[in-house]
Specification:
The chain is mostly helical. The protein has one domain. The protein is 83% helix and 0% strand. It is built from 7 helices and no strands. The longest helix has 33 residues. The chain is elongated and about 60 Å long.
Length: 182
């Protein structure tokens, strides 16, 4: 719990205080909106590694809790960061571009749900270690894509959300096939 609090403090207060108004750049806000999967995937591994879900409904409940956990942390960091920018720069209220925030937020939710469902399936089908490795590879690929194409994040967010939604549907199908009674 302490490392999580430290992480939220650094990225929710420290970095925005240091960046100031530059933090409200659409790319930076978009990156924060997409952090949910980073926290949700390990929670999904833990949820599915404990015991086999007795039903499809139970599996979906576990996935929903893991996704809500990850999105809750990401949203907390983003809200705290915007509040920090406003407190550090007194004057009128400054908010990120709301249309970009909505689009990248949709992408972030899609990525989180896709990571949770695929990681849950990996955990049941193979093992918790294999799921962790697969999630790390996914994060590494996303980090590389962000590094090389971050300037385009706001303009490709909706297409990315559609792709993430497609992956989430495939993950949902795979999880269903793994859990359903045989």
């Amino acid at each position: 719990m302490l490392p999580l609090i430290a992480l939220v403090a650094v990225f929710g207060i420290g970095l925005p205080w240091w960046k100031g108004l530059d933090f409200l750049d659409p790319v930076m806000v978009g990156a924060y909106a997409c952090l949910g999967g980073l926290f949700a995937a390990p929670a999904a591994v833990r949820a599915f590694a404990r015991e086999w879900p007795p039903s499809w409904r139970s599996a979906l409940a576990r996935a929903a809790k893991a996704a809500a956990y990850g999105e809750g942390i990401a949203l907390s960091m983003l809200v705290l960061a915007v509040a920090t920018v406003n407190v550090s720069r007194r004057g009128r209220l400054r908010l990120p571009e709301l249309d970009t925030l909505a689009e990248t937020g949709l992408l972030g939710v899609g990525l989180t749900v896709a990571f949770v469902l695929v990681t849950g399936w990996f955990t049941l089908r193979f093992s918790a270690d294999a799921a962790r490795r697969a999630a790390r590879l996914g994060f590494l690929l996303l980090a590389a894509a962000f590094y090389y194409g971050s300037a385009r994040l706001p303009e490709v967010a909706l297409r990315g959300a559609a792709l993430a939604g497609s992956v989430a549907l495939v993950g949902c199908f795979l999880l269903y096939r793994e859990v359903r009674p045989r």
